[in-house]
């Protein structure tokens, strides 16, 4: 990991360490931006032969993956450089995967099924964020089911996370708010995740093993930093101190959930996002306080520790209020979910076992429906009232 203002200038030397050719993966909005220019200049000065694929889009559809892989096949890069948000980095991950191992991509849907190393990946995030620059996960959209699928393998962890806060100042207000709430969800969900007694076989069977001492340490620092700086970064995108703190927080949260895993808020977002067309961070941020409240009986110690890190009386209330403060919708009803849709969303989420099984309280469809019902009303304390 390389972190700091101006560090995009190190891209060229890092890439040159793998050979003379690089594929840059980015999106159309960033294609002419100063941030991307600083990366390209650095690659040029290091003598790297660059091809730019600038067609990354949100949700990573398979048609875009096919185009990026074709671009890689023509250019034969020694490294892939991803410059963008989570979708762009996730696209670069599967491009590096399919440039190194035969398809179809669905071969790799089972956890930890990538057979070996992929093309070296240098991830340069422009949002704070998904933390994808340090995680073993790439979330793509399956062409047949149109559902999001997470491909998880230690081989998908980028070789380098190159975090330059200057590249995040151009992120629009809404993107900053949604991706920042997503980063907070990563920190809080990994801190409150299931705890599994480690065994030699279980720690190798999956990259995300539940909460542990290292992930807890990082998650706590991340939760404190993000909750103190998100509103500042949203209010003034040029506030470089707030931008730096957010990028650092999302980096730490990324390492935390890359090892611990996230839980019900992320599982439910897959279904809510597909049904409403809303962004990943809007959904995880909106759902987070409800999942926290549902999990409270099993995580009272963690809740007290979080209150200290976030300097608040109650973390559920603080997360809910921060979401509203940065402009998240107040309820699922507000984003167009009908009361009658809630059961179906719960049923669609229960199958995402990688995340459902990582929740500290066992979940069934009724439990997920209860969480969604409270979020539909926009009232986290409906869950505590129901509990008595
Ligand atoms: Fe997320």
UniProtKB/TrEMBL annotation:
Q: Which domain of life is it from?
A: Bacteria
Q: Which residues form the Alcohol dehydrogenase iron-type/glycerol dehydrogenase GldA domain?
A: 1-165
- Name the PROSITE patterns for this protein: ADH_IRON_1
Q: Which UniProt keywords apply?
A: NAD, Oxidoreductase
Tell me the ranges covered by the Fe-containing alcohol dehydrogenase-like C-terminal domain, including all copies.
Answer: 176-376
Matching InterPro entries, A to Z? ADH_Fe/GldA, ADH_Fe_C, ADH_Fe_CS, Alcohol_dehydrogenase_Fe
- State whether keyword ATP-binding applies: no
Among PANTHER family, the record links this protein to: ALCOHOL DEHYDROGENASE, ALCOHOL DEHYDROGENASE 4
Q: Which family does it belong to?
A: Belongs to the iron-containing alcohol dehydrogenase family.
| Protein name in UniProt | Iron-containing alcohol dehydrogenase
Q: Which organism is it from?
A: Streptomyces synnematoformans
């Amino acid at each position: 990991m390389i972190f700091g203002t101006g560090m995009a200038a190190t891209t060229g030397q890092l890439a040159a360490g793998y050979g003379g050719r690089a594929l840059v993966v980015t999106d159309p909005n960033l294609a002419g931006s100063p941030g991307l220019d600083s990366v390209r200049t650095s690659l040029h000065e290091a003598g790297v032969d660059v091809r730019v694929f600038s067609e990354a889009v949100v949700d990573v559809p398979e048609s875009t993956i096919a185009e990026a892989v074709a671009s890689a096949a023509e250019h034969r890069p020694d490294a892939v450089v991803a410059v963008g948000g989570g979708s762009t980095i996730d696209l670069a991950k599967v491009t590096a995967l399919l440039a190194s191992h035969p398809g179809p991509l669905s071969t790799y849907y089972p956890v930890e099924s990538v057979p070996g190393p992929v093309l070296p990946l240098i991830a340069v995030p422009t949002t704070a964020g998904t933390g994808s620059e340090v995680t073993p996960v790439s979330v793509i959209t399956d062409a047949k089911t149109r559902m999001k699928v997470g491909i998880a393998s230690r081989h998908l962890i980028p070789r380098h996370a190159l975090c330059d806060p200057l590249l995040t100042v151009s992120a629009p207000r809404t993107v900053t708010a949604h991706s920042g709430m997503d980063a907070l969800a990563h920190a809080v969900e990994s801190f409150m995740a299931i705890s599994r007694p480690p065994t030699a076989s279980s720690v190798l069977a999956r990259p995300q093993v539940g909460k542990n001492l290292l992930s807890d340490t990082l998650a706590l620092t991340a939760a404190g930093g993000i909750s103190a700086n998100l509103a500042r970064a949203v209010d003034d995108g040029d506030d470089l101190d707030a931008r730096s703190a957010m990028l650092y927080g999302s980096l730490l949260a990324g390492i935390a959930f890359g090892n611990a895993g996230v839980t019900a808020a992320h599982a439910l977002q897959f279904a809510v996002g597909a049904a409403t067309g809303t962004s990943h961070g809007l959904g995880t941020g909106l759902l987070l306080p409800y999942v926290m409240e549902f999990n409270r009986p099993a995580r009272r110690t963690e809740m007290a520790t979080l209150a200290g890190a976030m300097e608040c009386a109650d973390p559920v209330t603080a997360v809910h209020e921060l979401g509203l403060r940065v402009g998240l919708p107040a309820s699922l009803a507000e984003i167009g979910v009908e009361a009658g849709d809630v059961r179906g969303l719960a049923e669609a989420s229960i199958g995402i076992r990688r995340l459902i099984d990582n929740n500290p309280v066992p979940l069934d469809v009724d439990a997920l429906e209860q969480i969604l019902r409270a979020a539909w009303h926009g009232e986290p304390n409906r869950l505590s009232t129901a509990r008595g």
